[in-house]
Amino acid sequence: MSTADLPAPGPAPGAAPGPVPAERAEAVLPGVKPRPVWSYLRFFRSELRLIFLRRRNLLLLAVTAAFPLLIGIALRLAAPRPGNGGNGPGVAFFNSLAGNGVFLTFIALSSLLILVLPIVVSVVAGDSVAGEAGYGTLRYLLAVPAGRTRLLSVKLLAIAAWGLCATFVVSAVALVVGAILFPVGPVTLLSGVTVPLAEGLLRLLFVTLYVAAAMAALGAVGLAISTLTEHAIGAIAAVMVLVVASEVVDQVPQLAAIGPYLPTHWWLSFDSVLRAPVDTYGLLHGLLSFGVYLVLAGSFAWARFTSADVTS
Amino acid sequence: MTAISTGGLTKRFRGGQLAVDHIDLDVPHGCVYGFLGPNGSGKTTTIRMLLGLAFPTSGRATLLDVPMPGGASQVLHRVGSLVEGPAFYPYLNGEDNLARMDAADRTADPRTAGRRIGAALDRVGLLPAAKKRYRNYSLGMKQRLAIAAGLLRPRELIILDEPTNGLDPQGTREVRTLIRQIAADGTTVFVSSHLLAEVEQICSHVGVMRTGRLVFQGPLAELRRSAAARVTVRTADPEAAAKVLAALGLADALAGSHEASAVLGDAEPEPVCAELVRAGIGVRGFTVDAPSLEDLFVGLTGEGFDVDG
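Above: the input entities. Below: the structure tokens describing the complete assembly.
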């Protein structure tokens, strides 16, 4: 906002004293003075307020935050003894948790990533355009004019921010609960190497961002589906069906060939961050997959939204 | 300069139905234009195309001399609109709803937003309900909030689609007063309605739609003039009376069983009557009837439900 108050470039200071700058400011005010960045941020802020101040969404966030707490308490009450056999990330996490509370974060993220986080993201993403169409506010936003591309990009960014927030809420609550219920100290990675706590937390941050990226890609898919209907609940359900279908297909060995192309396939690849050296294969493929889904879904949403009649 | 102009504007829905059929609107700057037609005659579809919400199948449209839909971002902030009923976020209050609309406007000044929102709410009399959730508004309040959204900034053109729909007589009168005030400020008003009576008091111009076609357009006075008055003479000798009327140059002279009638046109009725008497016609009754505007309107739009399959 401060840029608006800056004097317009022109004569040197003092060269035009008195009423001239004021006159110029008067001449500018009633007209259109485009400040695209500020106005975009204002619109984005309004979108964030719409999402984050909505009671339904806050409730969703609160329920999500309760999960790490419940998982932490349950695991504290029935902690598996260390070295209890088995393998795979799940069991490895659980064995490590007894030694270090930091692992509660990874356990919480990998459990919630199966269903809870996708629900949280798809509720907001599926609602994004379909909800506005359902209320009829979409036609008024476009008549403002908000701009179709501008509106869509604000929606996508706000969905990504929402996914990021939900992921960080899970991480933060799990970290605090883990620190209270379990010992905290240098982190022994799944591969057996022990790293300092600070590095462990840094890896934790990276895992959280990785999950947030996965949720942003899902959010883009949700946004694309949301442009197809004016029934928010239908769009939300469609995103959920997509997630579950993808997870189920990913479990079928006969369909392993298409596995890597599924939207959910790389979600849990972050467990390699907890090994030393870090196996970047899964991570990079995961990020690539998220990027591709983001671009494809974003393009589809744009093509659809900028060419379709708004009939709601 | 015209506020709204379209040429051959056409919209064919995907199902093949022709909703708007080659209409040429011409709305002069500064007028109050009544866009009339029964429900389903294509008024809302036309308005949606004017605002860039729907894309025309063919034809062109300009708002304030800017082509639509391409020029939406340059011109729509100078246009306030109410399309197909009010629509807001039910879980936000009136003030927050207007703030949301203002935030979406890339040319609105955020520093004056609070003042402008207050002024718009005040203008439609909703200031006392500013903090009330939209969900709890009455229909009339919702309608007024939608008009307030159109008044968030000074506008050159206001497009109101059925602004009195569903309102009680008092609400209708309030909206009419509001439209008069808006027009008095020099804003062009384009108001659609399916009831001529609701807008005839405030309109300077009218356009009449019938099943997707514009069947009349022009100043309201012109529509009144086209209401050709007929002179009717009750007499025992209708044939002779009709001959006299025709001899006077009146068009469409007809003889009935007990009367003769003709289109009066520009002629004065008194000389016609005098001439009849001079010709020896026994005049039992002499009347001049002009159809009401409502009759004309119904004549233009068709009676009853006229839905194109």
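Note for the figure: Chain A touches chain B at residues 1, 4, 29-30, 32-34, 36, 38-40, 42-43, 45-46, 50, 54-55, 135-137, 139-147, 150-151, 307, 309-311 (CB under 8 Å).
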